[in-house]
Design a protein that fits this description.
Blueprint lengths: L1 H8 L8 E5 L7 H11 L3 E6 L1 H6 L2 H8 L2 E4 L5 H15 L3 E6 L5 H4 L9 H24 L3 E11 L13 H23 L2 E7 L5 H4 L4 H11 L7 H12 L10 E4 L10 H7 L17
Parallel strand pairs: 1-2, 1-4, 2-3, 4-5, 5-6, 6-7
The structure holds nicotinamide-adenine-dinucleotide.
The site of nicotinamide-adenine-dinucleotide has 27 residues, from helix 2, strand 5 and helix 9.
């Protein structure tokens, strides 16, 4: 019974804190789960997404449910971001304690351009939306003095930043940059305002952005078989974000934190090997040549 009440009421880990959650599109979004958990843990928050996403998705429903102001903004646009921080401080009645950057998009992935045939305009857009926006967010916040001392800023990453994953394409470059921005800005923000900046490297998760990756279902299955604890769900990712926003992790900064059931430390698992041994035919063409994709 106590467990149930705890689950419903939360543990007040974020009591009295103000947060901004970027990137909740629908109830599959990782940001959606983070927003719900943050409020459950006592925070008051605002939400932000692009105008198009607000029209196409169901972010409005979440805003209503959580009694959170929804501020449309393109995260690549500095004046939009200034509006998000200004309006959030006004709506929440003070400076911000935590920010979630849960934003990613690659036009090259969408248009199915392979990594050796990238459209460079599209690559710029991928990097701007998925990585540089994280820098813009923090530069805006710092100049506006919008984040409280000992605040926490998190962006979501993926293991393709370190290791090549078939089909992840130019998003791998964006994630590598995102993690680097966390370190570089984390140094300055930490030194000057004790604000901590980290990335959480999450398991493949069935969401709108995730499902756009080529071969995504196989990737989910493979990492599930490779991970001793299995893939981490969006809800579990939200739990981890809450701990990182809370005062329990005040000295954790400039880190890329793997939240992947152990996947990133594995080489080969019994479960993956069993599957691997089943067939080699699928990766050869009619002349017996290996297809690399
Ligand atoms: N789903 C996965 O397998 C997985 C794994 C690891 C990391 N991630 C990362 O998690 C984050 C959230 O993705 P998700 O899986 O919840 O998918 P999602 O599609 O629900 O969220 C992506 C969000 O990015 C927003 N967005 C796109 N362009 C934007 C812009 N210009 N300005 C502001 N917002 C913009 C979208 O509207 C959407 O809300 C992304 O950074 C993604 O790369 C996802």
């Amino acid at each position: 019974m106590n467990q149930l009440i705890k689950k419903i009421m939360g543990n007040n880990l974020l009591k009295g804190k103000r947060g901004i959650v970027f990137g909740a599109l629908n109830d599959k979004s990782i940001a959606w789960k983070v927003a719900e958990r943050a409020v459950e843990e006592g925070a008051i928050i605002t939400l932000s997404n692009t105008l198009l996403a607000v029209r196409m998705g169901t972010t409005n429903e979440l805003a209503e449910k959580l009694n959170a102001k929804l501020i449309p903004a393109d995260a690549t646009n500095v004046s939009d971001l200034e509006q998000v921080f200004a309006q959030s401080m006004e709506a929440l009645g003070g400076k911000i304690d935590f920010v979630l950057h849960s934003i990613g998009m690659s036009p090259n992935v969408r248009k199915k351009h392979t990594y050796d045939n990238l459209d460079y305009e599209m690559l710029n857009t991928t990097l701007d939306i998925s990585a540089i926006s994280f820098h813009k967010m923090m530069q805006v916040a710092k100049k506006m003095e919008a984040i409280n001392d000992w605040g926490s800023v998190i962006a979501l990453s993926y293991n393709a930043a370190q290791r090549t994953m078939y089909g992840y394409n130019d998003m791998a470059d964006a994630k590598a940059m995102l993690e680097s921005v966390a370190r570089s800005f984390g140094y300055i923000y930490g030194r000057e305002h004790n604000v901590r900046v980290n990335t959480i490297s999450q398991s493949p998760t069935v969401t709108t952005a995730g499902s756009g990756v080529k071969g995504f279902d196989s990737l989910v299955d493979f990492s599930e078989r490779m991970s001793p604890l299995g893939n981490a769900t969006a809800e579990e990712c939200a739990d981890y974000c809450i701990v990182m926003f809370s005062d329990l992790t005040r000295k954790v900064t400039m880190q890329n934190l793997f939240h992947d059931g152990g996947f990133s430390s594995m080489g080969m698992s019994y479960r993956a090997m069993e599957q691997y041994l089943k067939s080699f035919d699928g990766i050869k063409d009619e002349n017996g040549k290996i297809i690399y994709g």
